[in-house]
Amino acid sequence: MLLKIFEKRGNLRMWKWETENDAKGVVVIAHNILEHTGRYAYVITMLRRNGYHVIMGDLPGQGQTSRANKGQIEDFNEYHENILEWIKIANEYKIPTFILGVGLGGLILINLLERIELPVEGLMLISPLLEFKQSGKDRKNKLLSNVGKVSKDTRFKIGITAQDLTRNDEVIEDTVNDGLMLKKVTYHWYNLVNEMMKETMEHIKDIKPLPTLIMTGSEDIISEINATETFKDKLVTNELYYKVWNGLYHEIHNEPERDQVMRYVLTFLNNSVNTMGFIVEEDEIEDI
């Protein structure tokens, strides 16, 4: 059972999960589109068991943040405000802080890093949503999004199913029955995200050098892997881990091979804190 601490500062809500071991660092997680914090129990458990505190909350318009504004935000800065507050809380531990963005969360972190230098020691990206995978379904959504210029608050199904996210049958079943998963988003949200994708890809070189881990699945049908590779090639960094997991879908952290995925994440984290004075051995990584 995960022991989490709820914290509210102003209008922002988040949870903290503290490791029971000697803390080596703090990981701030920004989750993906349509989902919520509750889908990260496995990831959080793996991080806690291996010496990392975790700070995370539901992004605006998702999860438990608001019933009235589900699938809607007015401005992309709403995401930034949440992330900045979570990082501020992480920094209070006075140990290395890392940020992990999944899908939309990756887009948010990258866009924020292009604007300001964050007080963090490393960036981790899982299937960053820098461009939607091109398909007939997506082209239909792009056509519909033009209507959003007239009726921006109207909601529509974005066309992503649980089966698109992972091959893990248990996770698929949980996702299908998850009442907090978004079913629809507004045209305004969809247009805004597409605009931010384009803007973000144009300013990659504005990011200050930072140790970076980028991972994606070769069979991802949500995020365009070519955009991720372009980002990787343009990113300026002195330390880069890049891994394409063969055969894995969008949510590589939920796939049947997720133990291997998290071991790769923990190797990056442990190597990073090791250079900062912590002594961490590879065989110390604990599985669930």
What can you see in these coordinates?
The protein is of the alpha/beta class and 288 residues long. It is built from nine helices and ten strands. It has helices spanning 41-49, 77-91, 104-115, 136-147, 162-165, 169-176, 187-202, 225-234, 258-274, and strands at residues 4-9, 12-17, 25-30, 52-56, 97-102, 122-126, 155-156, 185-186, 212-217, 240-245. It has an eight-stranded mixed beta sheet, sandwiched between helices. β3 (25-30), α1 and β4 form a beta-alpha-beta unit. α3 (104-115) crosses α7 and α4 packs across α7 (187-202). The longest helix has 17 residues, at 258-274. The mean pLDDT is 88.
Task: Give a summary of the structure in a few sentences.
With 288 residues, the chain is an alpha/beta fold. Helix content is 36%, strand content 17%. The model has no long low-confidence stretch (mean pLDDT 88).
